[in-house]
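W.,

You were right to be curious about this one. When I first looked at the sequence I had no strong expectations either way, so I just let the prediction run and decided to look at it fresh. Below is the sequence, 372 residues in total, followed by the output.
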Amino acid sequence: MIWNRNNPYLAEITYSKLLSGKHSNKEIMHYEISLGDSEIYYEPGDSLGVVPTNDHNLVLAIIDRLEISSSTFPDGKDCSIFKLLESHYEILTPTNRLINFINENIKHDDLNKVVKSNNKNLLNEFKYGKDVLDFLNLDKNLKVDLNKFVALLKPLQHRAYSITSSYNAYPKEVHLTVSTQRWKNNLRDYNGVCSTFLADKCPKGTKIKVFLVPNRIFKLPKNQEKGSIMIGPGTGIAPFISFLQERQFLECSGKNWLFFGAQTRINDFIYENEILNFKQNNVLQKLDLAFSRDQPKKIYVQDRMYESRIEFFKWLEEGAVLYVCGDALKMAKDVDNMLRKIIEEQLNCDEHKSVEYIKTLKKEKRYLLDVY
């Protein structure tokens, strides 16, 4: 059987636990999922697609705003508007079609200005943290035809999470590390679609729709003697737990160096026992930790890179593969800038040569990113 987005496997959650401490600013969960008889086989670096359902409170609030019954069937649909909004359409992130429709039918100076500007960054800033209900409520007097409204939505998408386990170490199981997204403003509380679906609706024994999302690029080196440098702060650690489990299982001779960062050690050092065991058992030859708020001056993974710049560059020169996983907007850019700085210092070269060096790393598949 081929399992995919249109034909997901119904997998059972066998275990879950909160990884972050009670005083953490984040809610990070660990999930263990049985693959049963699916015959799904994954490799370190792959992701698991999870098909969520939308928050019931948000579904009901939108239906109430449209002034219709939950049991109403839109034209041409074979299920009710409640079922459609629960399981078939994105209602957290508004489409540009919906935003443009609302802009054309209400007078709202800020929205009108943003849309008229054709500036994507301004639009992203305006809609940041806002969902479909927020846009409908920009003008409480706006009436929207149900069929028109449904046509302005897009299909509900799966969410893909980096796999945190090695299949060899945990046959017929898959582990995930998920940061539960919750935020609020003065008026409302908001929930991430899939992260809160898992955290709030999926206790042990729940079956969820899943399928494999292979990653052809973000892979361990086939040459098991090659070293690996892994940079994964926060939930970016997920694929590297998988990498280290795999390298331990295969008894690889290649050296491993992990950079992990978070806000505080006591509350945010997720997988601390596992990571320290890898170090104790010499699966990890080097471990650098950066807990930004444990001292007056904030320290990040890129700062730890620079502290060990001579050895860091030596590992690269010896053929190690550099992996970066996590936040694309800031962390990955900061790491890239520090990498360039280290190369320039160690080679005593200009920016042009450091850029060429990095291009060569990428061409040789020795600088690999899984960022989001």
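Here's what jumped out at me. The first helix runs from residue 56 to 66. And, maybe more interesting for your project: The chain has a mean pLDDT of 97.

Coffee later to discuss?

I.
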